[in-house]
Records
---
Amino acid sequence: PPSATANLRPGAEQKVVFITARVHPGETPSSFVCQGIIDFLVSQHPIAKVLRDHLVFKIAPMLNPDGVYLGNYRCSLMGFDLNRHWGNPSPWAHPTLHGVKQLIIEMYNNPKINLEFYIDIHAHSTMMNGFMYGNIFEDEERFQRQAVFPKLLCQNAEDFSYVSNVSLN
């Protein structure tokens, strides 16, 4: 069999899953979850191999390293809650967001790349289970499509609550 997987062959369409974590320094569980995802994806587990064979994973494990280093709870080195600056991130004041957003825009504009899924890992100060926020779509098919992953996660991870997920929408 060829050594290159289908999604990495020259000229092939890449199906990308983009994962970011730790935009808020105090959300330390997001680092543990992201590390667990990375450990699984590079493991010899047969499902991890299938995922690697069919998807390209782009992972930014810490969007706020300065804030983490300083011991901040929510803000960056310059006092910004980075999660509130995705709309127009400054390359000077929010360099990690700017870089990630530029990469997402480049992927969106590249006909050979299909951004299949974006996961932004956070932690919550009072919720006890894992849960997800999602977009609100008028189109029922898009709304149902985004519910597939949380439903699968609920069936396979005892610490994930689909009920908590639904109650937040």
---
Amino acid sequence: SRFRPVSECCCILFCLGFTTQQSEVIVSALVKIMNTNLDMIYKDMVTKVQQEIALQQVMSHIGGVKKDMIILEKSEFSALRSENEKIKLELQQIKKQVMDEITKVRADNKLNLNLEKSRVKELVSFATVQIESFYCFTVQHAQQDRALTQTDRKIDTEVADLKTMLESHKLDNIKYLAGSIFTCLTVALGFYRLWI
């Protein structure tokens, strides 16, 4: 419809100095060339039915990929859950071990304190019996006070060391737990971004 009719083209060529036969040959050649070009263009084009089939194939492929992503996401989350449970169990075991150690150290300290107290008492009673002079008794008493002070300092130092060790274990556990939660959130955010 965009092209001029063959007879009109022949007339134009005739007006340009071509004979009627030349005009018809030129116009028929041009028509053949244009028809060949149009056939080649139509071969490269896709029909609406073919386009819909290709679209349905792409959509089914996308649906398969979505199902695969859902399955992968569920398996990853179950793996993370099991890893979290394992970490919780390990933390409980560590907590139990720390509590056992604290109880053991406390019992040892109490035993040592009682032994030191009984030893100091024995020293005091022995010094009281053996020493007749007030000066000697005063010296022995001062020594006993020093021994008690050293013992108290020793106990205070051990208790402070235990508290420091407990705090460092607490901080390590908190750091580990925070790292695990951050990792889980990062993985969840990654899956969320992939999903969207």
---
Amino acid sequence: PKGVINDWRKFKLESEDGDSLSLSKKEILRQMSSPHKSFSKDDKDTRERFCRKMSMQEYELIQDEKEDETCLQKYRKRCMQDMHQRLSFGPKYGYLCELQNGEQFLEAIEKEHKSTTVIVHIYEDGIKGCEALNSSLTCLAAEYSTVKFCKIKASSTGAGDRFSSEVLPTLLVYKGGELLSNFISVSEQFSEEFFAVDVESFLNEYGLLPERELPALENGNMDEQDVE
């Protein structure tokens, strides 16, 4: 808690407008945000007396500042964003990658981070469902940036005879170089007209997508339950 309190004090000091806080109060916040740098180690008595006085001044400072709640909301927002950034690991993508040949296909699977899910759409122009699936995967790639979404034409894989028009569109899902799922003629799982939300629900049924990323926190608008 001491580290959190000092971090909050420092954040408040940095976020204050230059004219909104008196010099004395600014100095109080500065001292409180770096309590171990205020005095030398040899000046123990002075440091202890200053710290006792500081607790009273801190209370008065917090009580006097009406805008403190707004500042606290901004601080919460920053903490949530920092926490989410620390919890998000591994490479990020955010787009549907076009693979040009079989070599790139193998590299996308075998040389990827072991924690990354790789979803490959094998398609051909003019095949029913392929265009709609590419559009859906483009949307999902933006929503799930930790998942690597790829597409490749069957004729470019080097194994076109294995991907005839009867099995397209095909979705292959890999992780750690291992094939997790293989969905042939996957568009048959949807209605004639389908969208990203339908593909998302389908992949979630098989547990192939991670949790959605936290949305950007707007203007610090969140209640106590969100913070918890």
